[in-house]
Amino acid sequence: MIEQRFKCPNCQEIATFYGNPGETKVVTCAACNTKGRVIIPGEKQDNNVAIEVSHLKKVYDDLIAVNDISFTVKKGEIFAFLGPNGAGKTTTVEMIESIRTPTAGAIRLLGADTKTGFNQIKERISILPQEFHSFERFTVRETLTYFSKLYKKRANIDEILDAMDLQSHEKKLYRNLSGGLKQRVGVALSLVNDPEIVFLDEPTTGLDPKARREVWQVIANLRNKGKTVFLTTHYMEEAEHLADHIAIIHKGKIIAEGSLQELLTTYGEKTTLYIKNCHSEDARQLLEEKGFEAHSSGNGDIMVKIDYKEKVLEVLSELRHECIEYDGVDIRGSNLEEVFLRLTGARLTEEAET
Amino acid sequence: MNLKIVGTDFLYSIRSWTRSRGTVFWSLLFPVMLILLFGAIFSGMGESKYTLYVQDLDNTDMSHSLVTILNKTNVLNIKNVTKNDDITKYIKDNNIKNLIVIPEGYENDITRSFSDPSAKVNITYYFDPTETQTNQILRSVISSVLEGLNMQLTQGKTIIGLTEQSTVTENFGFIDFFIPGMIGFTIMQQSIYGSIERNTKFRKDGILRKLLTTPITRSEWILAKMLFMLFLAFISTSVAIGVGVLAFGIKVNINLLTIIIVIATSFLFSGIGMIIGRFVKEEETADMAAGAISFPMMFLAGTFFAVESMPSIIQIIARALPLYYVNEGLRNAMIYMNQTEALINGGIVLIFAAIFFIAGVILTKWKED
Question: Which domains does chain B have, with CATH numbers?
Answer without folding.
Answer: 3-42+173-363 (no CATH), 50-166 (3.40.1710.10)
